[in-house]
Each structure stands twice: as structure tokens, then as C-alpha cells.
Amino acid sequence: MCDYKGRLVAWLDGELPADEVTNVDWHVARCEECQRAVSAYEEISASFLDCYEASMIRAPRRSRLVWAPILGVAAAAAVILAVVLLRPSPMERLTLNPPPASPAPAIAFEKTPVAVTTVHTRHRTAARHVAQSPAWKPAEPLVEIAIPADAMFPPGAVPAGFSYITEVSFAPDGSQAVRVWP
Amino acid sequence: MSGDSVPFALPLARFGISDREADTLFRELRKPLLRYLVCLGLSHDEAQDVVQDAFLSLHRHVSSGGSAENTRAWLYRVAHNQARNRQASYDRRFSTPLDDGVDAPLDEATPEQAILEKEKFRRLGNAIRTLAAPERECLLLRASGLRYREIGEVLGIATSTVADIVDRAIKKLAEKCNV
Question: Which of A164, B41, B124, B135 could, after both became Cys, cross-link B93 (CB 3.0–4.6 A)?
């Protein structure tokens, strides 16, 4: 192996002391082995530089969305927490104001009102339950109000998957009757 | 930080460096620094953070009366050390810089040339992975345009050692790639 080979890379890079440069110049011009080596070093340096330049094109971008799932979960938790905390307690909603002591009607009825107004609370499976109950006489109610079970009863009072129909009747004297149909 | 403007006023004027020169310094060195850090294995965003930190460190360094000479090597050294401090990602990815997925510029290449070029880069990528960390670092800094003396300053080694490492690394690559 040629003794000059150990200095060729530094020579190519212009890193040799000035007094050595002339010597290596002279040698390389006459040594085929060193000329081949210089050619190879130049080629590999150029390829490395191409790779280096290309590296910015394929630079991995750390996604700033790394936090997105965490933030999403946090937001969802905040919403759930807000709903739970701000929701009025079931007992609050169960409070019924007593009917006023027969105040003078503000509106005069042209016809005699129906004696009893029926309020049905229906769940999705209400029709099936109605059909199974012989005592139930389906009649088109005047007013239907859908109330979630957890608004009527304390949490846990109604088993999961349990459906029912509540019939609330108001008598002319203001008294109420509540019936629950499973 | 997406632009090339200096994110702060470097107090270099009292050291003979004008604001324009400071701006030029940032514009000239930002991208090469980013490229070097990405090749070390940092993500683009991590590299952005490190570059900004490096310039802030330069700001503090000069403010406290430090030398404003050879700022290029100084910035590379700071950036290099900060990259090393991010040891987790550094270790995780340092073994695969400049390897998979490197596509040579093939704008006007025929399909056959494209295949040959791709194969050449694949071999080079494999060869780079066999290099020791100092060899890779020296070649990356050399590709960044740093002189051997500056590379020595960045890595904290002698200039003659840099010459030996670069020589050894180039010969390894040439041998592995059958050049």
C-alpha cells in the first residue's frame, strides 16, 4: 500500500500543512493507486454529502399532535365532570310545588275541561309493556312528558335496563295519583 | 420558529458585530445546524428547539463578556452538547441517521439510473450504520463545512485526531460501498 494513502483525505479536504501539499500533489499526479483512491474518496464524500443534504427532506417531524389524545381525554373528562357537578340532584327535581289554592282562573274555558289530565312518561319499550298489561287501557294522552329515570329517582334506585311507564293523574280537586307500570 | 429572522437582538455590536452581521450569522447557520441535529437523530422540532437554545446561549455568552470569535464552532458545540443531553431520543435514534429512505435527487434520471442510485444510497446507508459515533459525527460536521480544527472544538478532541477519524471513516465507507 502506498504510504501517501493516509494523507489523501486530508489532502482532498485542504487540511494538510502547506509544505506537505506540494509533495502530495506531486505524488498523486504520478501514482495510479493514489489516483484511484482519491477518486473513490471523492465519490464517497459526494454521496455522503448528497445523503446529508437529503436528510432535511426526510427529517422526522415530531408531531405536535402527540398531546392531542391526552388533551382530548382531558377535555372529555372535564365535560363529564361539569355535567355531573352542575346537574341538579334528583331530590331537587323531585320537589313538586303544591298547587295554588284554587286561584281564580286567568282564562275562561269555552268548554268544560276534561276532568282528568293524564301524563305518561314513556320509555322506548313502553308499547311492549303496555301490551302486556291487561289492566292498562291505552288511550291517547293529552300531554306526554319524557323524563329520564335518573331525574326521577336517586342514582341506583332503578336497575340498569329496567323500563317502566309512570302514569300521573290529576283529579279536579288538585290531588295526584301516580302509578308505575313495569 | 419558522422564519429565518433572528428571534432576539444579539448584543454583538459592542464586539464589532453589527445587527446585520448577527442576522446574517443566524440566517447562515440556522439551517446547517438544523441539518446536523436532524442527522444526529433529533426530530425536526427537537432540532428547532436546540438551535433556538443554542442562539440564546450565544446571546448569554456574549452578554456576559464571552468571546464572539469563531461563533460557528461555538454554536455547533453548544448544539451538539444539547443534542447529547437529550439522551433518550439521541440514543433511540442515533443509530439510524442518514439511512433508510434517503432518496437521491433523481429529477432527470432514467428508471435504470434511479434504481442504481437508490441501490447506491441503500449501500451507503448500511455502511454509515457501521461507523462508530465519533466517525459519524466527524463526517457530519465535515459535511456541514467545518474545518478539522472546528470539528475538534465541537467534539473536544485534537485536530490530528479529527484527521485520523475522518480518514478512517471515509476509507470504511469506500470499502463497504465497493467504491
Answer: B41
- Chain A hits for B39, CB-CB cut-off 8 Å, are 52, 55
CATH topology for B1-94 is Rna Polymerase Sigma Factor; Chain: A (1.10.1740)
Q: Do B102 and A45 touch (CB under 8 A)?
A: no
Closest CA to A6 of B160, B142, B176: B160
Domain segments of chain B: what residues? 1-94, 99-179
Q: Taking CB atoms and an 8 Å cutoff, what residues of chain A touch B139?
A: 48
Question: How much is the pTM?
Answer: 0.58
Indicate the residue type of A3. Answer: D
**Which chain B positions have a beta carbon within 8 Å of A51's beta carbon?**
98, 102, 121, 124-125, 128
Q: How far is CA A173 from CA A113, A114, A169, B59, in A?
A: 13, 13, 11, 87
CATH number of B99-179: 1.10.10.10
The alpha helices in A63-176, defined as continuous H runs, are 68-86, 90-94, 126-132, 149-152
Closest C-alpha to A144, from A121, A163, A171: A121
Sheet holding A143-144, edge to edge: A143-144, A117-121, A165-170, A176-181
